[in-house]
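Here is one chain, start to finish.
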Amino acid sequence: MKIMTYNVENLFDTQHDEGKDDYEYLPSSKKKWTNTRYYHKIRDVMKTITNIGGWEPPMLVGLCEIENDNVLNDM
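Its structure:
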């Protein structure tokens, strides 16, 4: 059984969450974190995870630096 951990480095969605300091990851911020960029990063993360194991991708993946469960659902 393959297990991996992956730090996805600030994978934030584009919506503000009340009580969180996520303003730099909004479309109106300096980073201009748009839905296009967000889904591109998700696609790249998923490619990495699925390519790790070749024919047998990992059965368990620990992810670091994900903003919330909405991001996990989008993945």
